[in-house]
Amino acid sequence: MYLWSLATLLLASCAPKAERPTESGLLRSDFQTKVDGKKTDLYVLRNKQNMEVCVTNFGGRIVSVMVPDKTGQMRDVVLGFDSIQDYLHIPSDFGASIGRYANRIDHGKFTLDSTTYQLPINNYGHCLHGGPKGFQYQVYDATQPNPQEVVLTYLSKDGEQGFPGNLQCKVTMKLTDDNAIDISYEATTDKPTVVNMTNHSYFNLDGDAASNAEHLLMVDADTYTPVDSTFMTTGAIESVEGTPMDFRTPIPVGKSIDDFDFTQIRYGNGYDHNWILNTKGDDTKVCASLESPKTGIHLDVYTNEPGIQAYSGNFLDGTVTGKKGIVYQKRAAVCLETQKFPDTPNKPEWPSATLRPGETYHSHCVFKFSVVD
């Protein structure tokens, strides 16, 4: 009996321990595979407030963000998938570090220093988010120097998706102790090129990926860049005054989102536009905010960029099932993408996205969470 009990104990001690899930219910093993010969993984950031952010190096994606609501309950406030296989097989921009050029370039064509470059066409006749094999579908090299930081690097080779120059990129994500996700982008090139990186997290501050209609949105912008029926900026700059584009004070996202009598709402199928920020590159000032009256979770955005794309999830259609089996219906989230203006390479009067050898591209974005009563 003694020998049998001893053997049982030895076997139990040798048995592999069950993998402990993250606060958001993810398993690291579900994110470990190889893509184009490079290993993918899940990196977990935690701060002193018990906030948790999970990041995969596939596309430099934020997979989950756990923050407390007004009752202290932890809620996952971004859309995403439970495993790397879903990210590989279901096209999406969920949480991605977008590049080489976020947003659209007209007909995928631009001229730089008298040379014309043709990019892939993947969205209504234009190049969107760097093309069909943009950074969101590449594997970044990743290191985690401490429990609250992950550093992602990627070499985009000369000619990749038609862009010129070997572009060495770095994305640093830090989870601060005041519940902010601080994201810095850096890049250098060996040939003149264009760069515009952003994060494409889909935020639903209710934590249940239901409608965003009651979310209160604020964008500190007096003007925006209107688009045509193909979502391409026209080159015009128009005032938000007296239009559904006016979010200078917080209003519900759903208030005018179906006002298709307003051309820009009809063209965008809701909101999918670039606002010209009044903060003018001052990343100490709040440029936009989002708030859930239901949970009390409040998000402030800071950036050194001149613009922000507010996208209301108009093309989610109930065909995608995300984390915890939640079906993502139309307008289940809001994206707040800090950026250069869309199609800047073809509109020289707008803030330049050109990067030359010897220069360093730097973009900064902060997503800071808090709670209101």
Can you put this structure into words, describing what you see?
This protein is 7% helix and 37% strand. It has 373 residues and is mainly beta. It has one domain: Distorted Sandwich (Beta-galactosidase, Chain A, domain 5), CATH 2.70.98.10. The strands form 9 sheets. The protein has a 9-stranded antiparallel β-sheet with strand order 12-13-14-15-31-25-24-19-22, with no helix packed on it. A 6-stranded antiparallel β-sheet has the order 18-29-26-23-20-21, with no helix packed on it. A 4-stranded antiparallel β-sheet has the order 3-4-5-6, with no helix packed on it. A hairpin with a 2-residue loop joins strand 1 and strand 2. It is globular. 45% of the residues are buried.
Record field, number of beta strands: 31
Radius of gyration equals 21 Å
- Just give the CATH class: Mainly Beta
C-alpha geometry: globular
Q: Roughly how many Å apart are the termini? A: 61 Å
Structure classification: mainly beta
Helix share, percent? under 10%
CATH topology: the name is Beta-galactosidase, Chain A, domain 5
* Biggest beta-sheet profile: 9 strands, antiparallel
Number of domains: 1
As laid out across the biggest beta sheet, the strand order is 12-13-14-15-31-25-24-19-22
Strand content: 35-45%
**CATH architecture classification:** Distorted Sandwich
- Estimate the mean pLDDT confidence: 95
Low-pLDDT regions: none
Number of helices: 3
Provide keyphrases for this structure.
373 residues; mainly beta; 9-stranded antiparallel beta sheet; 6-stranded antiparallel beta sheet; 31 strands; 7% helix; globular; 37% strand
